[in-house]
Amino acid sequence: MDLLMAAFIVLWIITLLLTQLRAFSLHSHHPRLLPVNTTVTVHREETVILECAIDHLGTKTVSWRKLPYITPITTGVTRFAQDSRYEAVHVPWKKQWNLSIKSVQLHDAGVYECQVGTHRKMLRQKITLHVIDAVLFRKADIRITGTQFPEKGGIMFLFCNATGRKHAPNRIDWFKNGERLFSDRSENMSIKKTISIDTGVMTSSLVITDVHRRDNGTYVCRATSLEDETLITSLKVNVSNGGSSYPKRDVTRTDTLESSTAQITYMHSAVGLIYLFLIVLHLVW
Ligand SMILES: *[C@@H]1O[C@H](CO)[C@@H](O)[C@H](O)[C@H]1NC(C)=O
Ligand SMILES: *[C@@H]1O[C@H](CO)[C@@H](O)[C@H](O)[C@H]1NC(C)=O
Ligand SMILES: *[C@@H]1O[C@H](CO)[C@@H](O)[C@H](O)[C@H]1NC(C)=O
Ligand SMILES: *[C@@H]1O[C@H](CO)[C@@H](O)[C@H](O)[C@H]1NC(C)=O
Ligand SMILES: *[C@@H]1O[C@H](CO)[C@@H](O)[C@H](O)[C@H]1NC(C)=O
Ligand SMILES: *[C@@H]1O[C@H](CO)[C@@H](O)[C@H](O)[C@H]1NC(C)=O
After folding, report:
1. Would 174 disulfide with which of 165, 181, 193, 262, CB 3.0-4.6 Å?
2. 3-state DSSP: the chain helix, strand, coil percent, rounded to 5?
3. Ligand 3 neighbours by CB, cut-off 6 Å
């Protein structure tokens, strides 16, 4: 009887210990969120990785969604969103279930949530994504556009657009025959710079009203940026003697060649008008 009693007590203690141990192990093996960066800032076009790290995930799955939408972007490593820029990045046996977004755009900014459903409650990790409206690294570029063949007495308009790799250039200059050009009202030359921080483009416009034969030549545009990049390009300007005749006659005749050339001349005068308008704008500004 005593032996039976003792055996019973031992068994009871073992059972108690086992249940305690089980409860303890269950508790300690409950999914748990590990600390991650909750605010992430990237530039447009970059790839961003939103991190979610979970301990003791067990058989549970991790979902990502973007607030306020309910539908998950990814669940486990499966993508539900149509947008193929999203990818759930997970390496077996690792704790991270990251969300990767390629070529981030401004509309991607917002709050993302990594969630794990447990039988007790939903674990949620919110991560705020900020997107800076600037591209971090692009191809440096410089180009001149404008009136390559101005007429004597006419208007010449040159644009030099320079893009730095990281920032907009901080300096841009025009040269001709090795000499730097400056705005000079008496010479009818005006140089203006504009800078777009967002697109990283610096533009310098060079305008000559009343073009002379001496304005003929090679125009060099040079831009330098804070990173000491030097961008340089040139354009050969060929001043023509002018004397173009504007159409005065009727162009209703069915001579296709004639009418098409007439149209081109009309277009030239339209372009001239636009230039004139731009010049006025330029000088008034
Ligand atoms: C958080 O971000 C900073 C800078 O982006 C980085 O240096 C740091 O290692 C990150 N911390 C974690 C826990 O990922
Ligand atoms: C998840 O992202 C973090 C932070 O960027 C990184 O350290 C970790 O290696 C990533 N994990 C995986 C599985 O890619
Ligand atoms: C250069 O910049 C001007 C003014 O910002 C713009 O009108 C023009 O389209 C640009 N040209 C090129 C080739 O990007
Ligand atoms: C500047 O333009 C005005 C009017 O178009 C003209 O009279 C003048 O001679 C020009 N100056 C030079 C230096 O070309
Ligand atoms: C400008 O220079 C080009 C050669 O570079 C030449 O063919 C053209 O006749 C010149 N125009 C004038 C008005 O001197
Ligand atoms: C300049 O234009 C004239 C005709 O207007 C042409 O004969 C000459 O070849 C051009 N020169 C250059 C360098 O383009």
Report:
1. 181
2. 25, 40, 40
3. 143, 145, 159, 161, 203
